[in-house]
């Protein structure tokens, strides 16, 4: 089956519908599927539930879908400095399911591994545990969390081969690999498509069986959310 598509719009063709759930990779602004998100915005699809560590930053990433009011609910672990995210939530325009970061990652991994629920000590005794079953194991209380799965996962990788095997570069190997396993359809935008047989099998981060469509990135801005530097010391 041909997995390589010519444009981000073609890679998403026929996949988008109102009310769907989308997993979007990235950690801060690293590893964001920055070429696919604008195409989702352009499609006009609405009432989305989006699962992502955060929701981009001013003018970048998932912020675009918040700004166009296409997102109904965010399932996230970090709001950060996204003022639009904050405003929409506080005004009641956006529903938010806030997760501890490790719990979010494990819920996504569980979805990919067909594990419907698991227990974690994180969040016990806090608002995170409200309404959730708790159970005692070896004298400690644990909260039951459920898996996360999606209709579509959009991920950003460094390199892919025609079979859909993916390699991620450094921090971009964050939520992307797990999300690729936890959706009905996974679309990967990549910086480079290499010939079949290029990859050492031991260096593949996401096997091609989890990837349905591939497209070359049209945007590779890789914006830095916060730049922290120190002054050069003088002798």
Automatic annotation (TrEMBL):
The keyword Transferase applies. The keyword Protein transport does not apply. Keywords: Transferase. One of its GO terms (molecular function) is succinyl-CoA:3-oxo-acid CoA-transferase activity. Its EC number is 2.8.3.5. It is an enzyme of class 2 (transferase). InterPro entries: 3-oxoacid_CoA-transf_A, CoA_trans_fam_I, NagB/RpiA_transferase-like. Pfam families: CoA_trans. This is 3-oxoacid CoA-transferase subunit A. It comes from Endobacter medicaginis.
């Amino acid at each position: 089956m041909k997995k390589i598509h010519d444009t981000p719009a073609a890679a998403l063709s026929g996949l988008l519908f109102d009310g769907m759930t989308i997993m979007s990779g990235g950690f801060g602004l690293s590893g964001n599927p920055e070429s696919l998100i604008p195409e989702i915005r352009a499609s006009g699809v609405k009432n989305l539930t989006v699962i992502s560590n955060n929701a981009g930053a001013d003018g970048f990433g998932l912020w675009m879908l918040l700004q166009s009011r296409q997102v109904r609910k965010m399932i996230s672990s970090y709001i950060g400095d996204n003022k639009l995210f904050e405003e929409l939530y506080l005004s009641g325009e956006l529903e938010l399911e806030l997760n501890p970061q490790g719990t979010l990652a494990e819920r996504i991994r569980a979805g990919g591994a067909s594990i419907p629920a698991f227990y974690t000590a994180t969040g016990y005794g806090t608002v995170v545990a409200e309404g959730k079953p708790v159970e005692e194991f070896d004298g400690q209380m644990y909260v039951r969390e459920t898996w996360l799965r999606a209709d579509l996962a959009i991920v950003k990788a460094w390199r892919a081969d025609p079979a859909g095997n993916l390699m991620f570069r450094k921090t971009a190997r964050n939520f992307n690999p797990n999300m690729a396993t936890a959706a009905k359809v996974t679309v990967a935008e990549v910086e480079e498509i290499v010939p079949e047989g290029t990859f050492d099998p031991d260096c593949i981060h996401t096997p091609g069986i989890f990837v349905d469509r591939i497209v070359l990135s049209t945007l590779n801005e890789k914006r830095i959310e916060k730049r922290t530097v120190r002054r050069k010391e003088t002798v």
